[in-house]
Amino acid sequence: MVAVLPACWQAHIGDEFTQPYMQSLRDFLRAEREAGHRVFPPSAQCFAAFHATPFARVRVVIIGQDPYHGEGQAHGLSFSVANGQRLPPSLRNIFHEISSDCQVAAPTSGDLSAWAAQGVLLLNSVLTVRAGEAASHQRQGWEQFTDAAIAALNAQREGIVFLLWGGYAQRKGQLIDRQRHHVLTAAHPSPLAANRGGWFGSRHFSQTNALLRAQHSPAIDWAAL
């Protein structure tokens, strides 16, 4: 695993690969594949979020739960789907809020790589999932690994905007020092949560850009997909 994590992240969280929980996670993933289960995303894209956004360039963090479990959807970035895939409901709601908040046309491509290139770390808490079975790889060790990534950003960077949508992501907020960083919380954009209120009108995208500009950092072009 460590060989596919980029050097800039290895310097900060590479020691996690020597921990017992990571060996247990390796064994679990090997057993999943040997049992004939398909695992998403493809192993080459497991650490795609870290490759797409180097440690020193992270300006915004969007925390997801686990990858999409449908065929061809997950490609290693939270909330993002590979080009050509139909937009999942949560992503449609994200795009609706961007359009309303920033007064731009809603994006049509679900590939959020352009956000990652601008410094938005699109990090799922759990980095793999069994095909067709949501949450099937939770509590196998990934949460500890991604906690370590968030803790490293918290301790060694300043002024990052963390977007925590829904209770699951907000629990990760316990790792973040609000004196060093900015934390915005809202309901999860999934239809079930968003339609109960707290997502539409949250204006996280314009608020994020205001916070970035205040620290002389370029705004994110949320429509550039």
Comma- or semicolon-separated keywords:
cytoplasm, Uracil-DNA glycosylase, four-stranded parallel β-sheet, Ura-DNA_Glyclase_AS, 225 residues, Uracil-DNA Glycosylase, subunit E, Uracil-DNA_glycosylase-like_sf
What do you see in this structure?
It is a single chain. It is built from 9 helices and 6 strands. The chain is α/β, with parallel strands linked by helices. Strand 5, helix 7 and strand 6 (182-186) form a beta-alpha-beta unit. It has one domain: Uracil-DNA glycosylase-like domain (Uracil-DNA Glycosylase, subunit E). The model has no long low-confidence stretch (mean pLDDT 96). It starts with 6 loop residues before the first helix and ends in an 11-residue tail after the last helix. The chain is globular. The strands form 2 sheets. The protein has a 4-stranded parallel sheet. A two-stranded antiparallel sheet has the order 1-4.
Widest sheet, order of strands:
3-2-5-6
| CATH architecture assignment | 3-Layer(aba) Sandwich
Unreliable runs, pLDDT <50, ≥5 residues? none
Contiguous helical run count? 9
Q: Which superfamily, in CATH terms, is the homologous superfamily?
A: Uracil-DNA glycosylase-like domain
- Helix percent reads 25-40%
Largest sheet: 4 strands, parallel
Counting structural domains, the number is 1
Cα-to-Cα separation, first versus last residue: 30 Å
> Structural class, please?
alpha/beta
Mean pLDDT: 96
CATH domain class name: Alpha Beta
Envelope shape: globular
GO molecular function: uracil DNA N-glycosylase activity
Pfam families: UDG (PF03167)
Function: Excises uracil residues from the DNA which can arise as a result of misincorporation of dUMP residues by DNA polymerase or due to deamination of cytosine.
Keywords: Cytoplasm, DNA damage, DNA repair, Hydrolase
